[in-house]
Amino acid sequence: MRRFIRRNAAGYFFLSPWLLGFGLLALGPILASLYLSFTRYDMVSAPVWDGLGNYHYMLEYDRRFWKALEVTFTFVALSVPLRLAMALGVAMLLDKGLRTIGLYRAIFYLPSLLGASIAIALLWREMFGIDGVVNQVLAVFGIEGKGWITDPDTSLYTIVVLAMWQFGSPMLIFLAGLRGIPRDLYEAAEIDGTSKWRQFWRITLPMLAPVVFFNLVLQTIEAFKTFTSAFIISNGTGAPADSLLFYTVYLFNEAFKFFRMGYASALAWVLLIIIAAFTALAFATSKYWVHYENERD
Amino acid sequence: MLYPLIWLFASSLKPENEIFGSLDLWPSKVDWSNYTEGWNALPVSFTVFYKNSAIVTVLSVIGNLLSCSFAAYAFARLKFNGRTFLFALMMMTMMLPYHVVLIPQYVLFLNLGWVDTYLPLIVPRFLAADGFFIFLMVQFFRQIPRELDEAAMIDGCSPFKIYWAIILPLSLPAMGTAAIFSLIWVWEDFLAPLIYLNDINSYTVPLALRLFVDQEGQSAFGQMFAMSVLSLVPVLIFFVAFQKLIIRGIATSGMK
Amino acid sequence: MRITRRHLLASIGGASALAALPGLPAFAQERTIRHFWWGNPTRDKNTFAVIDLFQKAHPDIKVSGETIGWGDYWTKMATQTAGGNMADVIQMAHTFIHEYVGRGAIKPLDEYVGNGISLDHYDDGANEVGTIDGQLYGINIGSTTQAIPYNIKAFEDAGVTADLLGWTTEDFADACAKITEASGGAMRGSEDLSLYIENLEVWVRSTGRDLYAPDGGLEMTEEDVRSYWEFWGGLRDDGIVEGKDATVILDKGMAELGITRGTTAMTFRYANQVGAVQSLMTDPVGAAMVPQRPGTSNGHYVLPSMFLCLTRDAKDIDAAAAYIDYWISNPDALKALGIDRGIPPSQLGRDAIAPTLSEVDQNVVAFFGGIQDKVGPVPNATPKGAGEVRDAFMRTGTEVVLGNMPADEAAGRFIQDAEAILIRANR
């Protein structure tokens, strides 16, 4: 027993704020939402037990649930790689070339600052509208534009572009990671005459793997949960023709617009299972490509 | 890249009836009145909103950095029973859409008597509620060579000493990143203040910005844009100041 | 270190947390009520002015004014309702009142009418829509009706001379053609209103039916919806209303309307919103009736743009009733509130605001007076799920506007969806 305490004391001491927060503030609400997912709950009257009713309806009858999944999966598949590539590219530029100029970093981060504002929604519709700046630029190249954001076939891509444009946070994390790579590794490679391209594959990527892993996992989680941009740009409706019906937009509307918090909770737990599966997959494969400094356990 | 920002700034200089009616990017006549009038256009002055935001943000950032680095140190460096399981639980808290825990959490805070105070906004941050920062720090802590801990351990350093004297100073880029994100996200946080603050005198800046626009009625877009531009200023200053930490951290740490 | 942290927290949060605890001796004598509304800068200033006036008259009652914009209001309202922490007095919209009343979140006011709350000065029938199942749940704090805001200058330039308080859909189409032609296509006659169920409502009602039946089912028919979408499809094909790209953006804010952007001369709004349209434009704006098909009439009705309600969670009901009464009856309060929430539903209120009216407000008041003999009865109660039916209407209609589905097929699909929605919402 004493050995148990001695072995664990330090760990639990440092974990105590989190344990306290998790136990007191997070666990209860999480379990409550799990319970509510088995009920019909309109937020005014008491919840009514409904067994698997919500899950059954979702999988069997709810066309919009499948539509929301389709929209969200498409978005995740496109936006996560593009955004990470963009963020890594710019971070490497900033790390190498523009190291001393803080202002540049600020400029690249600025779009991310505007993330959730109403102004962005107005602006995005303005830019990708039929008379918008995007079409004016395309016209210069002789391409006839269209209402990108109002055509259900292309509207999702405008949100992907928005996600790429707001690459500030993964970029900053990449940058912090790049700064942690010892310079002498590159110097040695230079002396050996290794090309820049090989340096990237042999040094940068392996050394950066823990940060790449972090960004991949977190960006995937966030992409699955994308809410604000789609919500404000579609005025909360997922329009046109449900092409912007992101999973959490649908979930929010079910809960707060249509008074079906029980159903929304079921939707949330299904999403949690999906995200958890992807995250578990990422962790499982990570041992083949993410190596930590002197990791032995 | 910057077109949207220019648009936002230009719009803040336009009179109300020109913002959407005219296609010109730049106003016909530059007019700063949206700034001067916008500051006091709401029943409570923006001086109060900024003060409120500052209190919430500063405390939250401190809370996040302390509590999350504690937890991250435990997950990254210490061995204890149940570590993998607890780490998985921590990851899970990030996966559940916030909207479905909103109501149970509201009921919880209501029973604690915390609604209409800043406690629901601040206390969770001292209790490492944001897994993002824990995971971020874990990834960076794991990069620090273990020989350093082991040498310190042999010298008789306590785990706390190792955390404080070795891990933290060697993680300045990570801590700087976390500080920047934490500040920006708390500063811009909208949903929690919306739900937990009732009295307009306690509103934060993002909440106040929402008071300008009514989809259904009279709005003051020009003033909203002007105040939005101003609300970016403190964040930018902080960003420029703190990103030096990311850049300089390594140079001064003596780490190879 | 941890002591400091706790100390900090206590000093920041502790004081306000204590103040929020009910029943502490120091505050026991003070009566407090909370009033929650959705607002905008003008409305918030006006409403806080009324709160100040009220507190001067009733120093023993403290009123906490709480406000946020329309979209966020309902999220917060739902959360507070779920937590059992609704404000004592809240503002309600006709689109939501049945959802809240039907679930028991709002208290009936009948026992306080004439007993704390005086409604004697109200117009006859002004509180009909707020009376649900024979009990008064929502007090009308501003009357309104459906309207077509129009650009007066564009109408003059195009030489449109139709009687705007009695025109038909044919006159409307004619006006759209003239305006489009006069502007060389730069300005279309109107927004495409295909996706506005509020406008469909006038279309359906002018034949004597409502959107919803008294039993909560549908009263509109597939034929109503098909003919409505085909009418607008015709105008779209003629190029005299806005194209599909502007139409499929749903729930547009004021700043995105064709009329405020100058791309159309007309749109659909409620009469009380015409002033807000004007504030975003330079050309003068007037209000016209919604055009009705030849041979039909009375599609319009007078409805409250907003209600004042007493909630299930109200504790000091006498104080809340005193506040409500002051709000709706005191001439100073009425004057301070102005016309922002709609036209006061009493002569007392209209007299109070008369000296303060702007030109556009005067137009709205004149419009409202002019249609009084042309409105129909109030519609059947809106069932739970109506909000979702509205979304389904816009969604299915979008397919028609985009040309992906013919109007008849879409109408059939919408009616089917709507029936399923109502069953699910009311089981």
From TrEMBL, chain A:
CDD domains cross-referenced by the UniProt entry: TM_PBP2
Record membrane topology: Multi-pass membrane protein
Broad class of where this protein is predominantly found: membrane
Source species, domain of life: Bacteria
SUPFAM superfamilies: MetI-like
Subcellular location: Cell membrane
Record field: transmembrane: 12-38, 71-94, 106-124, 156-178, 199-218, 230-252, 264-284
The entry's keywords: Cell membrane, Membrane, Transmembrane, Transmembrane helix, Transport
Cell membrane is among the record's keywords: yes
UniProt keyword annotation of Membrane present: yes
InterPro entries attached to this UniProt entry: ABC_transporter_permease (IPR051393), MetI-like (IPR000515), MetI-like_sf (IPR035906)
The ABC transmembrane type-1 domain, residue ranges: 69-282
Family: Belongs to the binding-protein-dependent transport system permease family.
PANTHER family on file: ABC TRANSPORTER PERMEASE PROTEIN, ABC TRANSPORTER PERMEASE PROTEIN YESP-RELATED
The name this protein goes by in its record: Sugar ABC transporter permease
From TrEMBL, chain B:
Transmembrane intervals: 54-76, 85-109, 121-141, 162-187, 220-242
PROSITE patterns xrefs: ABC_TM1
Domain of life: Bacteria
Location of the protein in the cell: Cell membrane
Protein topology in the membrane: Multi-pass membrane protein
Domain ABC transmembrane type-1 residue range list: 50-242
Alphabetic keyword roster: Cell membrane, Membrane, Transmembrane, Transmembrane helix, Transport
Family classification: Belongs to the binding-protein-dependent transport system permease family.
The name this protein goes by in its record: Carbohydrate ABC transporter permease
Organism lineage string: Bacteria, Pseudomonadati, Pseudomonadota, Alphaproteobacteria, Hyphomicrobiales
UniProtKB/TrEMBL annotation, chain C:
Localization terms from the record: Periplasm
Record's signal peptide: 1-28
InterPro entries: Bact_solute-bd_prot1 (IPR050490), SBP (IPR006059), TAT_signal (IPR006311)
Pfam families reported for this sequence: SBP_bac_8 (PF13416)
Highest taxon in the source lineage: Bacteria
Keywords: Periplasm, Signal
Family, per entry: Belongs to the bacterial solute-binding protein 1 family.
The name this protein goes by in its record: Extracellular solute-binding protein
